[in-house]
Write a structure and sequence with these properties.
The protein has ten helices and ten strands. It is an alpha/beta fold. The longest helix has 20 residues.
């Protein structure tokens, strides 16, 4: 258990303050909620500091491999949005360099985005003609019931208060609109990190193969489903996400990674099918959820009746 003398905030999913080290031992301030299983970091920075850090990240240079990987993911996901097209407006939160919105623009969408990095906003404007709002979603003050689709591509797990942000998503989505969230899957990353840790104890070089990704939060199928449900969303679907060839801006795609990536993806997909989609061991998951046609949210009490 973590230090009981410190009044850390409760779990954002279930409200519990009961937590334990996520890796079974003290390793960075990463804990797991003993009630719902959410994995998250104990953060002692305030929100302004965190947002300022994102604004100051250097996104001015990146490899062609990284750009190809981002564009590849965009081409995979854009067709998923068509089922919700009505107002023809789509919003990408944490739009980055605009690769996804550029693909949406090519598909005929009216594109909106928010992004904290001035460098990324400038790139999206100069390369793709996209006007992205340099702010958080909450500070953008979009109209109510405005968008068909809101997306988060590896962003929601890096937001200090995802529940607050999802409540804002609910407000700006039209009834029947959908939110799509791609993020690392904690069920994969925690277990993979433990496995590589054991291997590294025997052969230290294996430590370099540990690609564990845990930002402020690390969700799995159960915890992201519960969070979206808490915020009023229905028709929640969680599936394995297409894998990226590279994660960091300076990454180059090695030949082994080109071979290993589809093998991991196929294996996880087979396990999901065999288990009826109850077992999700993909490194990343893609979640979709719908704002119900009846826009008034049920209170927690009403929902239990």
């Amino acid at each position: 258990m973590t230090d009981s003398t410190v009044d850390y905030p409760p779990c954002i999913v279930c409200g519990s303050k009961l937590r334990t080290p996520a890796f079974g031992k003290i390793r960075l301030p990463i804990v797991r909620c003993l009630s719902c299983g959410l994995v998250y970091r104990i953060v002692q920075q305030d929100e302004k500091t965190i947002l300022d850090d994102y604004r100051e990240l250097d996104y001015s240079t990146f490899t062609q491999d990284w750009m190809k990987a981002r564009k590849h993911l965009s081409s995979v996901y854009v067709p998923h949005m068509d089922a919700y097209r009505s107002t023809n407006r789509i919003l990408d939160v944490g739009a980055g360099h605009g690769f996804f919105l550029s693909a949406c623009k090519d598909a005929g969408w009216n594109c909106y985005g928010v992004e904290l990095s001035p460098q990324a906003v400038a790139f999206a404007r100069e390369q793709y003609g996209l006007e992205i709002n340099p702010s958080t979603l909450e500070d953008a003050h979009f109209p109510e019931n405005y968008f068909d689709v809101v997306t988060f591509w590896n962003v929601l797990d890096q937001i200090l208060d995802p529940a607050r942000t999802l409540n804002e998503v609910y407000r700006v989505l039209r009834p029947g609109g959908a939110v799509f969230v791609r993020m690392p899957n904690s069920s994969f990353h925690i277990n993979a990190s433990k496995a590589f840790g054991k291997l590294a104890a025997i052969v230290p070089k294996f430590a370099r193969l540990d690609q564990t990704v845990i930002h402020l939060y690390s969700f799995n199928k159960n915890t992201i489903t519960r969070l979206l449900s808490n915020c009023g969303f229905t028709s929640i679907d969680v599936r394995g996400a297409a894998l990226s060839w590279s994660m960091t801006h300076d990454a180059r795609i090695s030949f082994p990674k080109r071979i290993i990536t589809p093998i991991v993806e196929k294996t996880a997909g087979i396990l999901a099918v065999i288990s009826g989609n109850t077992v999700q061991l993909n490194p990343s998951i893609l979640t979709s959820a719908v704002k119900p046609a009846v826009t008034e949210k049920l209170s927690t009490f009403d929902a239990q009746l």
